Structures are given as structure tokens and as C-alpha cells.
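Might I ask for a little of your time on a matter of protein folding? The record follows directly beneath this note:
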Amino acid sequence: MRNRAMAIPAPPSPVPRALKGALDHLPLADATQLYRAIGLELSQTMGGSSGVLLGIFFTAAGDAASSGKSHVEALKAGLERVQEVGGARPGDRTMIDALAPALDALEKGPGAAAKAVREGADATAEITRARAGRASYISDERLRGHNDPGAEAVARLFEALAAG
């Protein structure tokens, strides 16, 4: 149920462009430093609360990777940190609704994660009672049928990564 003509504007897609532009200087061989660098890049190039929250997400994932956690475990630690900082949970109509299922599917590969993230993002269009984020200030009838912008941004990030 992707609706590109949303009452709440979908964020432009700076995420893939920012990361593609940063590839030359990202520490690709070191997961700890890579996650931290991605967090810094996104927090500086992606507007709104999504950029800040994704910055926190990847920085926390870098910290978890430095303690020996696998990629999936590190990313799930990042999710936990975002939930601690932002207070959102699945079902609150935020990026968490896309990010959590994507991470649960990630061990099955990037394609499975991209499918799960899209389903999670699209499901936010049916959640009309936002309990967190900017959408919590918008009337229920204006939310219906429109993906949460943060969930859409996360979906686009995973889809771009899965596409290569």
C-alpha cells in the first residue's frame, strides 16, 4: 500500500545517495568502524528525526560489534538503543515498524530483509493511532493510507542495500 502522494511528505531519498557518496572513505573492512561511520554520515546528511535516530542506531550497532557481536546481533542492539532513546515500540507507527521485521529477516539474506522492511513500512499506512514520533500530532484520518515517513526511509535504505 505504498502511497507516494502522502499527506505527510515522504522524505527525499538522501540515504542511498549519501552512502554511495561516502563509499570511498567508509572503513568497509571493520564492522565496528563501518557502523559508526554510517551513523555519523546519516546523522549529518539525513534530515529530521530519522537522521538522528539512524545515527544512534548505527553508532550503537558499532559499539555492539566492538564487543564481538555478529552483524545481526549488533544491528538488533542498535534497534534496542533507538527504542530506549525514542521510546517507540512496534505498532507505534514509526520507523521501528519497518526496522524490527527487517532485522528479524536479515539472517535469511538482504532480499528477505528488504521484503520484510517494505511490508513493515506499508503496514504503517493502516496504523491510524500514532503513539510516538511526529505523526502522533496528526489526526487519525490524515494518517490513514499513508506510510510513516521514518518507516519509508528505512524501507528505502534496505531496498537500496539489497539492490546493491
